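Chain A, query sequence.
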Amino acid sequence: MQNYRTYLVRFALVVMLLSMITGVTGCVCAQGLGHNETKLDTLPQQALEVVKVLLAQERAWNDGDLNAFASGYKRSPDTIFIGHEFSRGWDGMVASYRKTYPTRASMGTLTFSNLEPKLLGSDHALLVGRFRLERSKKEGGNTEGIFSLVFEKTPDGWKIILDHTT
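Chain A, predicted structure.
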């Protein structure tokens, strides 16, 4: 069932990209509800733009481009990352990523799923979902979890200002 959900999410994202090219302002998007359920929703353009940030991050990570991955975050001393520890600031977050993932092999292959965006007004959004990182045992082994992200609409587009990943 997980593969089916992944297929639906990826299908919805392809439809989203096509809608952007053709000028359609909404999209049908798959959202995982539970173990065996998937719900299709139409998302507003701004919610789709938030999802696009995460897709770009997934692509950058899997290309081994940590700088492009980090560009999804607001470059600010106020950006917050909550994982095993609490950290504040874009520079510290990037330094932590570089220390934890020093090689392309240690980065593995990242996949996001069950993405559920919610607009919190015209300039903020919430996105929750799941991640899976596949890598060899030598590089730390596979891991997966959940996350919640708060985005802010900036002159440079939607940027993550708070990342809580477990």
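The longest strand covers residues 143-154. The CA atoms of residues 16 and 48 lie 7 Å apart.
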